Each structure stands twice: as C-alpha cells, then as structure tokens.
Amino acid sequence: MQDSVHAVRRRGPQTASGRFMARSKQPGIGRRFHHWAKDHLLLYLAIWGALFAVLTFLYKEILLPNKAPVNISLNLDLKKIHVANTPASAAGQPIIPVEMQLTATNPSSREIYLLSNVWIAHGYRAMPSTSDAGAFGERMNDALSRRRMRPAQRYAINSAGVALAGGMLLSDTRLKPNEKVVRKVVFFVPKDTYDVIEVWISIPTTSRDGGLLTSWKFENNEMVPDFRYARDRRQLARGADNTFIEKHLELQNSTARVAMSLSD
Fold first, then answer.
1. What are the residue ranges of helices labelled H in the chain?
2. Measured CA angle at 170 (ends 81, 250), to 5 deg
3. Whether 224 contacts 217, CB under 8 Å
C-alpha cells in the first residue's frame, strides 16, 4: 500500500513538470505579435502607398482644379480692307470693309461654358475743341463720374456714337483647358463719315453648364444683357456697379473694346 502511494506521488510532480515544460516552449504574446507584424509589414506598406497615391491623384486632378478660377482671355483686332473698287450702299454712298478678328482662349485648367455673347461697332466723328483747361477738366471729370470708356480730350470732342454693326459673336458653348476659338467678321462703314470706329464685345462664362440663360437686346444704342436662372427664369441679382452676380456658378463677363482710325 505504501509503495503504491509513493508511486502516485512520484508520478504527480513529473506529470505537472511535463505540462509546465510544454507550456514554456510556446511563444509569448509579444513574440507572436512580432512575427505577425513582420509578416504583414509589406502588406500594410503597400496598402498605405496605394492610399497615398489615390489621395494625391484626387487632390491634383479633382480638388485642386476645381478650386482654380475660370476665366477667358480675349484678343480683339480691327483693320481696314483695301479694295480696288469701293462698293456703294443701297443709297449710293461709298462704303469700306472692316475686318474684326477675335481670339478667345481658355487659359485655366478647367472647362468653361460660354453663354450667349455679342459684339457691336460704333462710329464717331471728332470735332475741334477749345484748349481751355477748365473745359477740359470738366470733360475729364464728367467722363470719370459716368465711367465712360472713351477718353476725354483737350483739343477734340467726339460726337455721340452711332451703332454701325453688331450681332451674335460665337456659336461655341464650351472651351476645354487651353482651347481657343477664332472668329472673323467683315462689316461695312460709310466712307468719309466717321473718323473712328470702336468695337465692343462681351462673352459671359460660367463653370457649370445649363444653369443660366442669357439674352440680349439693342436698347439706347447699346447691347443690354439679361441673365436668368434656367430652372425658374428668375433674374440674377445685381451688384453695386449694376452688373449681374452669381458666385455659385462663377459667372464672369469678359469684355474687350478696340478702336481704329478710319483716316487714310
């Protein structure tokens, strides 16, 4: 009986020791995490690299361009066309051809949308004026207060402008980045009637298609615009300078004005 009890007691510690030694051979939590991180390090680096590349692409190609301002640059040129035989109008008065060339370029990184645009040409006669400093000062201040684009002169006074030609300008509805469009127009003016002709053009643009409607009418010797929202035909608000404002659609109105002498 004693021998069997002692035998059990000897086997007990050996069994317990065997289990302890078996557990000591298993790696700890820290070591297992180290192996796991080592095995997955390259995978996580690849994931972060791909994510960074996507974020960089979105920033450069979408977010950054959408913040860039939309605009259009204009180049307007006038020249007389010399012909051997000057044609005559229906009234028998000689008329001379004038060529107008417009180049419109989109220098921005975004596509822009062109609204209805127009041009108009006016003719002026110059009349001699006194060189009195006081009279010249009054004409200068009057031009500044009325925000007239035609210059005040000391030795000449321009007559009121007479509309000679005009109409729609561009049929294009959009310009891609760095795209340009050219339009040439030939119109006729009476010979020996005006000293100067001046052409004014207006090209309104937006950053989104279909949001606005534009119409023009000839009123008081000028082209008068009307801007309305397409969805409800409501007219846009006007700023302090009486121009239409729409910041959400980034409405801009690019204009150019060029004058040319008709003297030979």
1. 2-24, 29-58, 64-67, 133-145
2. 135
3. yes
List pLDDT tens digits, range 201-258.
999 999 889 899 999 999 999 999 999 999 999 999 888 777 888 888 889 899 999 9
Spatial contact of 203 and 117, defined as CB atoms under 8 Å apart: yes
Q: What is the pTM of this model?
A: 0.69
Query: Is residue 117 predicted with pLDDT exceeding 60?
Result: yes
**Nearest Cα residue to 111 out of 75, 74, 73, 71:** 71
Residue whose pair of structure tokens reads 């939590």 in the numeric block: 29
Give CA–CA dist 82/1, Å, rounded. 140
Dihedral sign, Cα of residue 110, residue 253, residue 119, residue 82: negative
Helix, strand and coil in the chain, % to nearest 5: 30, 40, 35
CA–CA dist 199, 46 (Å, integer): 61
Report the chain's terminal Cα–Cα distance, integer Å.
143
Round to whole Å and give the CA distance between 97 and 199.
Answer: 14
- Residue 153 has a CB neighbour count (10 Å cut-off) of 14
Cβ pair 170, 91 in contact under 8 A: no
